[in-house]
Amino acid sequence: MAGLLDGSIALVTGASRGIGAAAAIELARLGAHLVITARTQGGLEETDDAIRALGGEATILPLDLKEGGQIDAIGPTLFQRFGRLDILVHNAGVLGRLTPVAHIMPDDWADVVAVNMAAAWRLIRTCDPLLRLAPAGRAVFVTESRAREPRAYWGAMGATKAGMEHLALTWAQEVATTPLRVNLFDPGPVASRMRFNAFPGENQATLVAPGDVAPALAALCLPAEARNGALVGAA
Length: 235
Ligand code: NAP
Fold this sequence. Notes:
The protein is α/β, with parallel strands linked by helices. Helix content is 44%, strand content 15%.
């Protein structure tokens, strides 16, 4: 399978279903070897099956992004196994409970901060050295409009995605003189488990599918894509 990403190593978080799985499959279609992470082994195996059905290759790396030590091990593990990392897609995210800010429970807050924001910082920390060495390193952080448009009951999601965006855009400035390019990707409303949990009464058949937004996300990972510090939408 000859492709634009042949020989590249790509790490995708939240690749057990939804947008992350579709992004991983699209990157594999373009020729990258995928390292796919999430907590659900069965979901990762389904993504792996889909990648293999295309003639691609994947490595499953089950982990819980709430465990900082597991994230810290990613960079050294990838270096030992592959000697390189070309692409990081931090797609994993959690909604938390949609509730007034005054009612957010400490455990829920800790979970949403850990996955949506702290994991982004720890992924940057562990992947930065390898991505800087890549000839055309690319990092994409999947974000959401609530980061920029506060709405009642979405405080934990919005605040943590805003924090993630700030970290990513700051990192983009810090690597501006290197080949590494760092961007944000907002897919807009997409049929997924998270979307169902946020809007249970919605008919998901009226929404685009994860596979529909994956090409726009994957485009930000291509060597020719030179944007840095941009917010890109799927439309
Ligand atoms: P999803 O189907 O719920 O997928 C979320 C992914 O994150 C799953 O693979 C899940 O895997 C992973 N994840 C959650 N907690 C984790 C943890 N503690 N450790 C490791 N992985 C974890 O949701 P989605 O809609 O595809 O969302 C993907 C991204 O798109 C999110 O960042 C979301 O904010 C963003 N987004 C979605 C929409 C939309 O309409 N769907 C709109 C704007 C932005 P496991 O459960 O297997 O761990």
